[in-house]
Specification:
Residues 333-353 have a biased composition (Polar residues). Residues 320-332 have a biased composition (Basic and acidic residues). InterPro entries: AK/P_DHK_N_sf, BCDHK/PDK_N, BCKD/PDK, HATPase_C_sf, HATPase_dom. This protein is α+β, with helices and mostly antiparallel strands. The chain has two domains: 2-222, Alpha-ketoacid/pyruvate dehydrogenase kinase, N-terminal domain (Butyryl-CoA Dehydrogenase, subunit A, domain 3); 227-305 and 364-466, Heat Shock Protein 90. It has helices at residues 10-19, 21-24, 28-37, 45-52, 61-65, 74-100, 104-107, 110-126, 137-153, 157-167, 174-204, 209-214, 231-250, 270-290, 307-312, 323-330, 379-382, 395-403, 410-413, 434-444, and strands at residues 221-222, 225-229, 256-260, 266-268, 298-304, 366-372, 448-454, 458-465. It has a five-stranded mixed sheet, with helices on one face. A three-stranded antiparallel sheet has the order 1-2-4, with helices on one face. A hairpin with a 2-residue loop joins strand 1 and strand 2. Helix 8 (110-126) packs antiparallel against helix 9. The structure holds adenosine-5'-diphosphate, potassium ion and magnesium ion (MG). Potassium ion is lined by residues 385, 387, 390-391, 432, 435-436.
Length: 473
């Protein structure tokens, strides 16, 4: 039986409390009450068609920091909420349309349809605010509650979608699932980022002294962005989390050696980095232990990107990231390995919804190499590792994890897959979401993930991340 691991969510809980102190302690029951308090409007098909036909705002990183450094003045908070409000309804409507475009039998699956109704619910809480301006701090507070509800409502999306697509796998091909999820989950990253940024700006602008004490350097945060994020610290944190899960499952834990520039800091979203590193370490731990090499350390190297590479690179962003570049990476033919972004041109996700661009003055980035002696990936599996549903984790195990057969509690068991903002991380391998979702997070700000397998020996994974930009004082 897979025991539940209480994840020591140091970094994440600091973040959640910082951005949303009341919400962080809210239980499901309290959430239901919270739902009732929110003013809603019925969502009609007309609303969806109209909103989905609006052009999507090309979100830039500058948008996330343009309202200023906390604590924000009242007028800055109002401008953040109006900006957030101007963006979200169209984004939600696009997601609803995309869900409706799935084969009918797939949308009819109770889990997929749950996601659809979550989107309808969130849109119904936004409609009363649409086409008006938030001009008072009282309204700003109410709007912030809508944002907290939005983030909370969609917290478990990933495990619900995984369950839905697992059940509907007879009716939709893995390629179509990957196509849908790639777009959907990338769009979700952006939507959550916008809502969480407003929440974080709101709460870090309140005089919550006790909360401020818990964060090492609250002054380094601009909303959800930590301008002095130290990758080595995230790696250490994730190592301890993954080690515990590994020890519970296998009774052993491989050792992790961190080398390279351990003091390096850059600007990034800590919860994104935490998600990616956790998934990559889980893969390395699992491979290492399952191939009986638990005495061989997993090596994590932190290699900052030389400044001139960023300056010479394509800093203008845009979303023309070629699929060919990904193909190259998939085949292990990557420039990331040479610590350069040229093979992965810094543009964001391929999804039509997503147009995140690096700031004009990008701060340098970092490449993190995770090297294990876990036997590598067979050529035949290698071509599938980026498919959302592909896993070599025992399928029965995965299915029974989802159905709750192992833990006795369906909801607990759903934590097989993790994701920032709600889904848990209690299993060493999930349902094949770690690599593709990790890559979606990395690419969101112009980074990437490349996997080099030395079949029969081990695997090198190169995670490249760009600094998310200089934040003006
Ligand atoms: P999951 O871990 O849930 O199976 P992932 O997307 O994280 O899903 O990985 C997909 C598959 O890629 C794994 O099931 C495994 O077969 C392979 N894989 C990923 N990383 C490694 C690694 N470091 N060593 C060996 N195989 C790996
Ligand atoms: K996969
Ligand atoms: Mg994995």
């Amino acid at each position: 039986m897979m025991a539940q691991v209480q994840r020591p969510l140091v970094i994440q809980s600091q973040f959640i409390r910082l951005c949303c102190p009341r919400n962080a302690r809210r239980t499901t029951g309290a959430r239901a009450r919270h739902h009732k308090q929110l003013h809603t409007s019925t969502v009609t098909d007309n609303d969806i068609t109209r909103l989905a036909s609006l052009p999507l705002h090309p979100l830039t990183l500058a948008d996330l920091v343009k309202h200023g450094r906390p604590p924000l003045t009242t007028s800055q908070l109002l401008s953040s909420s109006n900006f957030t409000l101007s963006i979200l309804p169209a984004r939600l409507a696009h997601r609803i349309q995309s869900l409706r475009n799935l084969p009918f039998i797939v949308v009819s699956n109770p889990h997929i349809s749950k996601i659809h109704s979550n989107y309808i619910h969130s849109l119904s809480t936004l409609l009363p605010w649409a086409e008006r301006e938030i001009t008072t701090i009282e309204d700003e507070v109410k709007f912030t509650e809508v944002m907290a509800d939005l983030v909370q409502t969609h917290a478990n999306t990933i495990s619900i979608l995984a369950r839905g697509f697992l059940e509907a796998r007879k009716y939709i091909s893995p390629t179509d699932v990957t196509k849908f999820l790639d777009e959907h989950l990338r769009a979700r990253i952006g939507t959550r980022l916008i809502a969480e940024q407003h929440l974080a700006l709101h709460f870090s602008s309140q005089p919550h002294q006790e909360i401020m004490h818990e964060v090492e350097d609250p002054g380094s945060f601009v909303g959800v962005i930590d301008t002095k994020l130290r990758p080595a610290k995230i790696v250490q944190h994730c190592e301890s989390v993954v080690s515990e899960i590994c020890e519970l499952k296998y009774g052993v834990r491989p050792h992790v050696v961190i080398n390279g520039e351990q003091e390096y800091t850059f600007a990034h979203v800590p919860v994104h980095l935490e998600y990616i590193i956790t998934e990559l370490l889980k893969n390395a731990f699992r491979a290492t232990v399952e191939s009986g090499k638990e005495r061989e350390p997993i090596e994590v190297t932190i290699a900052p990107l030389p400044e001139e590479l960023v300056e010479n690179g394509n800093n203008s962003g845009g979303n023309e990231r070629s699929r060919a570049a990904i193909k190259n990476k998939d085949q292990g033919n990557t420039d990331i390995a040479s610590n350069s972004f040229t093979g992965n041109d810094g543009s964001a996700s391929p999804s039509s919804d997503e147009q995140i661009r690096p700031l004009a003055h990008s701060t340098p980035g970092v490449t993190i190499r995770i090297r294990d002696r876990g036997g590598g990936i067979s050529p035949e599996n290698y071509q599938h590792i980026w498919d959302y549903s592909f896993t070599t984790f025992n399928e029965d195990q995965a299915a029974s994890t989802l159905s709750g057969g192992n833990s006795g509690s369906g909801m607990d068991a759903l934590n097989a897959i993790s994701g920032p903002g709600g889904d848990g991380v209690n299993s060493l391998a999930g349902l094949g979401y770690g690599l593709p979702l990790g890559r979606a997070y990395a690419e969101y700000f112009g980074g990437g993930i490349a996997v080099q397998s030395l079949w029969g020996w081990g695997t090198d994974v190169y995670l490249s991340l760009r600094g998310v930009g200089k934040v003006e004082e």
